[in-house]
Specification:
Elements lengths: L1 E4 L5 H15 L15 H4 L6 E7 L2 E10 L4 E9 L10 H15 L4 E6 L4 H9 L3 E3 L16 E6 L2
Parallel strand pairs: 4-5
Antiparallel strand pairs: 1-2, 2-3, 3-4, 5-7, 6-7
Length: about 160
Amino acid sequence: MEIVPHHDALQAEVNSLIIGIQAGEFAIPITLDEQPDLFDIEGFYRKGKGDFWVATDSGRVIGTVALRDIGNAQGALRKMFVHRDYRGSQHGVAQALLNRLLEESRKRGFREIFLGTTEKFRAAHRFYEKNGFELVTPEQLPAAFPRMIQDTKYYRLPLI
């Protein structure tokens, strides 16, 4: 497994992985067209100190994670997805993606990371909590946090 910065040649596989998990695996009513951030990785994620990383295995996309700079030394963790065949601690893909995001976040001066997720991603809730994220109410989110209509649970991780 390798974690690399996103590049355009991977975009079709990134889209397929994300939609396959959201709509196919978890029946979340969302389409690719309803996620304009995926059509503008540079402008949406790499603006400011943000970024987008992709986990690959022999060149095949198996996971994604993105960091959006929302100002005030705060970041939003977005697009954390791992192919079903690569989930679990035995593979370590999710942990490696999160570690990369947190390492880069600290280097880039972020003080805290926020994320939103859906009720359906219960394993993700356990994963985030195991990694020190604390549940917060929508009212505790920064005004600049990019909320998705599908999100029902929110987390915060202080980095300092």
